Task: structure prediction
Amino acid sequence: MKSSIDDTGPRLARRIRLERSARGWSLADLAESSGVAKATISKIEREEISPTAVTLVRLAAAFDLTLAGLLVRAEGNGDRLSRAADQPLWRDPKTGYLRRQVFNNPDHPVEIVQVDLPARREVVLPSSSYAHIRQVVWVLVGDLVIVEGGERHDLGAGDCLGFGPPSEVTLANETTSTCTYLVVLSRT
Result:
């Protein structure tokens, strides 16, 4: 599992460079479009730092992609069959959040992601990460707090929440154990 995570960083750096280049954008153009500092983007592209989940979401949104879409493009995966051993893993360096891309295919409207959110950690995602998608979160193990548009939802194992209109979302694990949840989304 470790080597799969380690391989993702360089692939992400190349993919971000490629996406920016394909659009004819300078670092300044991408910085303006994403709200991510030009210096940060440069360091990511040179593999000097590993981007956080929030940074990746902002870059993906600037490219009109979901986070899953950016990661799948980085991994070069587009098969209809998604074997467990081949599902890309990515760990957020800031929170330790572990993301498994269970299923994503550019020709299919549904994506499935499994997330392990460590104890006492949270991820705040901007509303731009929910543009052009509809999303449902299903808690498999543990407890998860979702604050969406200022409204707090406390979910336990088996609970499921369908997101409303795009707004800033906080996903928080306020417990002492890892929370595992699935994200199922469709492109609109």
